[in-house]
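Model the whole thing, not chain by chain.
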Amino acid sequence: MVAAVKDTADRVRSIDVDQYRYGFETLIESEKSPKGLSEDTVRFISAKKNEPAWMLEWRLEAYRRWLTMTEPTWARVNYPKIDYQDIYYYAAPKPKKTLSSIDEIDPEILKTYEKLGIPLREVAILEGVEPPPGGEPSANRKIAVDAVFDSVSVATTFQKELKAAGVIFMPISEAIREHPELVKQYLGSVVPTSDNYFATLNSAVFSDGSFVYVPPGVRCPMELSTYFRINERNTGQFERTLIIADKGSYVSYLEGCTAPQRDENQLHAAVVELVALDDAEIKYSTVQNWYPGNSEGLGGIYNFVTKRGDCLGNHSKISWTQVETGSAITWKYPSCILRGDNSRGEFYSIAISNGHQQVDSGTKMIHFGKNTSSRIISKGIAAGKSQSTYRGLVTAHRKATGARNYTACDSLLIGDKCGAHTVPYVEAKNSSATFEHEATTSKISEDVLFYCTQRGLSQEESVGLVVNGFVKDVLQQLPMEFAVEAQKLISISLEGSVG
Amino acid sequence: MTALLEVKDLKVRVEEREILHGLTLTVNPGEVHAIMGPNGSGKSTLSHVIAGKPGYEVTDGQILFRGEDLLEMEPDERAAKGVFLAFQYPVEIPGVTTWNFLHTALNAQRKARGQSQLSSPEFLKKVREVAKSLNIPQDMLKRGVNVGFSGGEKKRNEILQMALFEPAVCILDEMDSGLDIDALRIAADGVNALRSPERAMVVITHYQRLLNYIVPDFVHVMSRGRVVKSGGKDLALELEASGYTQFDDAA
Ligand SMILES: Nc1ncnc2c1ncn2[C@@H]1O[C@H](COP(=O)(O)OP(=O)(O)OP(=O)(O)O)[C@@H](O)[C@H]1O
Ligand SMILES: [Mg+2]
């Protein structure tokens, strides 16, 4: 922990304010769909993926539905109107030939992931990483990575080992062809094609993403991870992730995202669906660091994401942990539908905004089953001129007797030009539900900063330390290697926020 | 010999109001100075300005540390040079364990001084020894900085830090307030153990009692933003008998 904090501080010093460290661009040839959105675009994407007819139909239906919908305006975010005809909906690195192993991936792409610190080679990668507070030191832990570059998945590592365990982990485009029965059964079962404007758009044009199936009774032998990278200009990224944990299984899944630094805004509208059957558990962690725009508020990713988990089985559990530091605009509410009796949903969130970033994020916990429980811990940190809103919904339906929720929303303000807002909705349709809600808003006080600097810490180290203390409960929920990365990110995203 | 700390004719304003009206104080290595004076006379203000707390406007005068202009330095630079302030009201930092805070701070100071970084085991060994000598239980180190500490524990934590950082000038702002008799003796022993020919102490207190344990070389009386009288340790006894009213006219 200490070394990590130190390291964080060193990094902060070594990086100029306003410099996004993932902001480089990879120069590779790519293949794009024609600009704009029409039935032809949808057909183009489906054809590129060699999809079966049912999949094309599914997409077209979503597209037609989308045409009748309007963009939502209820979130506390402001942005100029998006021109959906001015976006490329599909971009893929031009393949030199069909790939049969990682060694055949375009070396430029491999280099990109190396620069990002994402290992695509099949090696144990975790040596020398210090455990997070309270974490166990890692002994030969491995992470299987699926890397999505613009619209396509370029590499999925550790395939063999996973196959031996019976775990399916592959690009969703492949799963549509190879496991149509599973995809047909679950795709759109948690987030229906008609769910919301951005999810419907995604259903029409999603190009790739990850698919995971963990068979009954299997504990996935390694962390699964997807790394999303937007590279192309004027390109939207619409990935789709579907994770199914069959009875009594367990899987931990990590997701990371970065993008080059560009003056224009780029649209990212992903859909993630999780399904947990009886006694299954899914742990889904995100470190989102899309380009946030520059200090004048120019550029940055518009992140409109629909993530939802279905605790379909009894005693199932889904937990979302997110560290949101990037994006110009974040619109994101990872949610749990607690259908099975005794199922449990968790949401742990750190949302950091600086500069001109706008975050409207939170969760929904929908209690249907008996004795279902949920827990929400949200830590919002706003600095600069940013605005951060927690928006949450907790409901217990008539049959959800004994439902329990605990919500704690804490906001920390740095400086006086930013804002934090809490919008909790609570609705209990039966009297046996118990909902607890706590909310605090605080500032990093002059006195605390002076105390830290009097002990020898610089202003930025002091802010980093106080913030890391503030988010500790949530950081502890992350798998250790992500916790370390997240801790660094937090300090980097807050640099220049004091003084 | 250059003085360790020299405050020369210092005038300080807070929010348009002058609080220190030309204060002079010279502290040489090895000396212990006590500063006494009624509530609101500017004692904490002086300690804050020496340590570099933002929000104070120095309108005149100088503060030199080993001949260097302290007012030009950031608070963390002053700390690394060896200026330590034990706060009258230590703050709480939730979620940051005391030992992590101390380790991070100590290494930051060491780095600024060009010294090697202490690894976790090295640091733990050191902090345990210091804690033991001050009768501070180990699990205080695992708790959030000052979070839920009693008033006395907070003060002991300040002394612990002082012992750990081994500063050149220690300013103790009412370290005796909130300490029971036993804790006071232990804390004072800790302070006395740090007395050395190179190190100086400035002890701010309202009570002569503390000065029985930490025997000062000089006692200064502050009133309304000035030092109005200086003398040897007997001055404190005199004050105890007669109070501060005699200085009201002088201010
Ligand atoms: N931030 C501030 N704004 C306004 N006035 C202040 C501020 N800080 C200090 N003062 C005033 O300056 C004067 C000196 O305060 P200071 O805290 O230095 O006194 P002190 O000698 O330490 O008192 P005590 O013995 O009660 O601790 C007081 O009148 C106080 O109200
Ligand atoms: Mg005081």
